[in-house]
Write a structure and sequence with these properties.
Chain lengths: 265, 265
DNA sequence: CATAGGGCCTCCCCATGGAGGAGAGTCAAG
DNA sequence: CTTGACTCTCCTCCATGGGGAGGCCCTATG
């Protein structure tokens, strides 16, 4: 009979771990001295200890080891574990890719995050603007028209409103543009305005701070980021207006989010 | 000014997370209502929130994000993180390899664990035995001789004693064998017996239960395991005797550990 | 025989990054 | 005024032990 310290040295498990494994019921001492409370192990238990240790080294949880000892299908548990490990690895690869991308970027002005935009109902309208700068005059006019068509219409909370640029390429003039705004329920459309259900989508997002004249850099960054890290665009980017001329005096305080829909998986 | 729920929906961070980030000092609300205690955020803080979110998605700890905000070198932290992730990936690959190896094995009789055997002093002696079975007569005789040469010599605690089979191949007769036993201090050697310092070594270990006639299977398993999972043997395997004829009546209770030294890294 | 030191016992706190919930105050709409 | 939706703080929980306090047990040594 071995005291816990001796068994610890033979099994290469710490005393703390041995006591913990007893509490969890996956490695019980052969006996316990009723007077002193000392745990007593036998050399034959080294095999069981090695088994527990082997499973722990594979990353199995105490719960899983307990299940195996209770007669669960080892193969199935190992197969599931392999699947989980493969998924973990995929996450790590993705993070490594992103970190390397960030390290290559000199200024690190932009930070990309991944979000899920839930399903929603929007009204949309398209037009061609002579100049990019005309957006901020055009948007309010659509809102007014929509409200005239649908009195009592309510915008979603939180508000969500964005523009997509439908030209394949970037252009300064004659910009084809679509504006959408989320609402609580569908309403009546018109020549100009169409209601539709926008499905949930996963997006990559960056925030652009400052006036719009350098927003092209944010787009360029986001596109390069997606390409280099294995994301695949699932539609045109959305430009969401958060702070702007309507609530901030200084152009420096303007804040715009660019969301690039990516494949749901 | 936005209440926490509104900011939560805009930033895609949970209310719980926002409160937690305030407590940790990495994302403070713009102000707090002194009367009600309500946290109040501004839209401009969405950028900071996105930054925190981006770093969390990369797996940076709160501590690391705090360091970055305090002006630490982002590049250095990201580089370290990349190193840590690469290491994690290496571990996962190793585990996956082992799991696949286990799934291929039909019976799963053996479990391999990895241990580190510390540096120690042993006395060793070599011989050629006519039959494998003679081991258990030979070993005690060396022990006696060594004790005669070095009265007062003490074996290490925990005891550690093993045989290595020095023939390149497996053989039944004329077995070249080396026996070693750990002691507390070097002593006087002889023609037969030599003291030496055994360096620390990492080993793969399996336990074999039962009589010695099927121990070859354990060796075969261990060797195949090492080969298939990318370990490289760093010396002959060690056969450690734990339970045997000297303390267990029944052959079924005999317990032997086989340790295969592997490259330290 | 007395004491010292090492081993062992139980019990409690700690880490990560929030999630979940209790109990109570706040706010806006009907 | 009531109701329901938010918000506040404070507590516990997850997994796997590590670290340490306070106290008992055993053995060796002076």
């Amino acid at each position: 009979m071995l005291k816990i310290g001796e068994f610890s040295r033979l099994s290469h498990l710490t005393v703390k771990a041995l006591r913990f494994y007893e509490k969890e019921g996956i490695l019980l001492p052969a006996s316990t001295d009723k007077w002193t409370g000392y745990r007593l192990y036998e050399t034959a238990q080294l095999e069981a200890a090695a088994s527990v240790k082997a499973y722990r080294q594979l990353g199995l949880s105490i719960e899983e080891i307990r299940a195996i000892q209770a007669g669960a299908d080892v193969r199935q548990i190992l197969t599931e574990k392999a699947k989980a490990l493969t998924e973990e690895k995929r996450v790590i690869d993705s993070r490594l890719s992103i970190i390397h991308h960030m390290l290559e970027d000199r200024e690190m002005r932009y930070q990309v995050t991944e979000k899920t935009i839930p399903e929603m109902i929007v009204y949309s309208s398209e037009t061609v603007l002579a100049q990019h700068m005309d957006i901020m005059r055009w948007i309010p006019s659509i809102g007014e028209e929509c409200l005239r068509l649908n009195p009592g219409m309510k915008c979603a909370d939180p508000p969500y409103e964005f523009c997509e640029f439908l030209d394949g390429e970037y252009r300064e003039t004659d910009v084809k543009i679509r504006h959408s705004e989320a609402v609580t329920a569908a309403g009546k459309g018109s020549d100009q305005i169409r209601f539709r259900r926008l499905p949930a989508v996963k997006v990559l997002s960056v925030f652009h701070k400052g006036s719009y004249d350098r927003i092209g850099e944010a787009y360029a960054f986001l596109m390069r980021y997606a390409e280099q890290n294995g994301f695949h665009a699932a539609g045109p980017a959305r430009e969401c207006y958060i702070d702007g001329i309507w609530n901030k005096e200084s152009e420096e305080d303007w804040l715009t989010e660019i969301q690039l829909p990516i494949d749901w998986r």
